């Protein structure tokens, strides 16, 4: 199947198929190997790879549409895909620090092999490097090559990754910090299955341990002085915030669809009519519609500006991510409030939507960071 053949109708059908087994994967914490294989068959792994490499050549708007649609079916699957689409949205851009030949190889592997890639950044002691500090993962020189040792946590998609973009510090007299592209089949890498969280349980976000892993010298794709990492990359921020916003909006869309069906189907004996006949439920459903309509406009606007080359400031992208995800959380919580025990039963998907949507607050940029940065900017401090 060509990239063009992976239409939105195809994506919707995939999402419906994924939704049918999402609850089972969630309970088992099982990585979605089957759905990922379906994404490969549909050509979606290479969606944002340039056309010159055989990819879909899609921009952020198309990527967000796909991620949001899949997020309504199984957000764990959508998150794994989103991380790959994000990386290809960055490494093939003009001005990328990546060697062109290496970026092209990774792109072709996505197209021909369905190779997944993700950035591995978070560590047990450091937390997210976006808040500052040097990574503990060390890259030391070994002739022309590097040897990498360390541990990364919350490594989404770990069981299925072909490549990791690993955030390291060097052992040089004046250490540099940055990314090494590490083939995940390299000797010395092991995955410890530590992921056992409240939500997105099937995302395979396990620990990855690197023990003296040899990495070719030209795979040091972006090493800089530590101070050069202090300012966020506007393009990276726009892609990341848009895709995360779309994903969690998809979860809220699924909850809203369940709510509509529930209101039509539930006929209390004391009422003798469906709950859909009561004004209080009209208002609740309508308020959710308002929030989701705002979400759609925010995501579409940020994606369109980014694709047009009119990059918003990182602060603006953070506002969109924060607003959309908080709207999504409010919408799902409202469904739970109005549906009571029926919403929290594990026989229904709503309790999973509630757990999954709360994960939005953990993804960078987190709410406090967005607000503090905006406040400091407004005060000029």
UniProtKB/TrEMBL annotation:
Domain Acyl-CoA oxidase/dehydrogenase middle: 123-213
Pfam families with a match to the protein in the record: Acyl-CoA_dh_2, Acyl-CoA_dh_M, Acyl-CoA_dh_N
Tagged with keyword Secreted: no
Residues of the Acyl-CoA dehydrogenase C-terminal domain: 244-363
Enzymatic class: oxidoreductase
E.C. number(s) listed in UniProt: 1.3.8.1
Listed GO MF terms: flavin adenine dinucleotide binding; short-chain fatty acyl-CoA dehydrogenase activity
Organism domain of life: Bacteria
Domain Acyl-CoA dehydrogenase/oxidase N-terminal: 8-97
Keywords: Flavoprotein, Oxidoreductase
Protein name: Acyl-CoA dehydrogenase
Species of provenance: Methylorubrum extorquens (strain ATCC 14718 / DSM 1338 / JCM 2805 / NCIMB 9133 / AM1)
